[in-house]
Amino acid sequence: MSTSRKVAIVTGASQGIGAGLVQAFRDRDYFVVANSRNIKPSNDPDILTVAGDIGDRAVAERIVSEGLTRFGRIDTLVNNAGVFLAKPFTQYTPQDYASTLAVNVDGFFHVTQAALSQMEKQGSGHVVSITTSLVDHAIDGVPSVLASLTKGGLNAATRSLAIEYAKRGIRVNAVSPGVIRTPMHAPETHEWLAALHPTGRLGEIDEVVQAVLYLESAGFVTGEILHVDGGQSAGH
Fold first, then answer.
1. Where are the domains of the chain?
2. Taking the mean position of all CA atoms in its chain, how far away is CA 137?
3. Does Transcription appear among the keywords (predicted)?
4. How far is CA 69 from CA 14, 89, 170, in A?
């Protein structure tokens, strides 16, 4: 299928920020390829769902290939899928380590590689990764080494890819959130989590979505790590 309408891939798309991104891109008349481990088929013919573990290279390649078959192009990839485990460093298990790297690093690598291969052929494209403000500002009481190790790597890869692909019409950026009000966080933790931000509140899903949409429309911005964190990265 050949089309002039843009196509966005969103990983981790079944709930929270990912679901918000799917809706936002549809509101802007994009076709969307939505992935998560157990995502259900959509009633919207302009949304293609691809279920599977993003850490599996075959799944990542299928997301791109099925998107191309259905919609004919890939314009935007949002690497939203992610795992966060808050444990003291010495209590992480080998399984914790492996599962976090599988989603946060392997998932990023495989689907980004497949998407960029297509974007190169088109001569245009945009990759956005969702990372974490903890990379820049560790917080006492929130042990987060695996998040910093993996998402910090994505920040560095974002800058590197931005330079590598700058002359090929492809931009690469990241959004670095603080704690966002999603189903991941139980309501009884919200007050404590809100206090971790200088602004004294949690972020909202739409605030991360709007940051992604800004980057999507900002043609002169690449290699940017955009903080949406209530001032966390600036300090306390």
1. 7-234
2. 19
3. no
4. 22, 44, 21
**Model pLDDT for residues 32-45, shown as the tens digit of each residue:** 999 999 999 999 99
pTM for the full predicted model: 0.95
pLDDT tens profile 56-93: 999 999 999 999 999 999 999 999 999 999 899 999 99
Question: Cα(229)–Cα(198) distance, rounded to whole angstroms?
Answer: 9
- The span from the CA of 108 to the CA of 160, in Å, is 14
Judged on CB neighbours under 10 Å (0-12, 13-18, 19+), 120 is middle
CB atoms within 10 A of CB 98: 11
Tokens of 24: 């936002």
186 confidence band (pLDDT: 50, 70, 90) = confident
What is 7-234's CATH superfamily? NAD(P)-binding Rossmann-like Domain (3.40.50.720)
Backbone angles phi, psi at 9, to 5 degrees: -100, 135
